[in-house]
Design goal:
5 helices, alpha/beta, single chain, Rossmann fold, globular
Length: 130
Amino acid sequence: MPVKTILVIDDSPTERYVFVDLLSRNGYRVITAENGEEGIEKAKAELPNLILMDVVMPGLNGYQATRALTRDEKTKHIPVIVCTCKNQETDKIWGLRQGAQDYLAKPINGEELLVNIARILAQANYGHAK
C-alpha cells in the first residue's frame, strides 16, 4: 500500500512541528507550507492525499485557501481538514461551507485527528495515487 501524503498548511512553526511529528510517526509522508498562497502552490505541485489547513494566517487565510483548493479542477478532489483555534459554531459552519471535509479546534487531540484522517482517506475516491 503506497504511503499517503499529507500537506500541513500552518503559519506556526510549533504547530507544523507537532503535526509533522505525529503524522510521520504514524506512517504518513508530510509536506508543509507556511501560508495559504504557498499551500495552494504545493497542493497543485504535489497533489497530496489530504490537507490540514489552519485558518488564521497572514495573507490568504485558511477559509480563502480552502475555497480556492476545493473549487480548482486540479485540487478539488483533495480532502481538507481545517485545524484552527477558531472554535465557534459559526466558524465551523463557514469552514465546511468553503469545502472542508472536517473541522477540528486546536489544541488538536492527536488520536482524534488520526481517526478522522483515516476515515476521510478511506472514504475518498482519488484520481491519483501517491
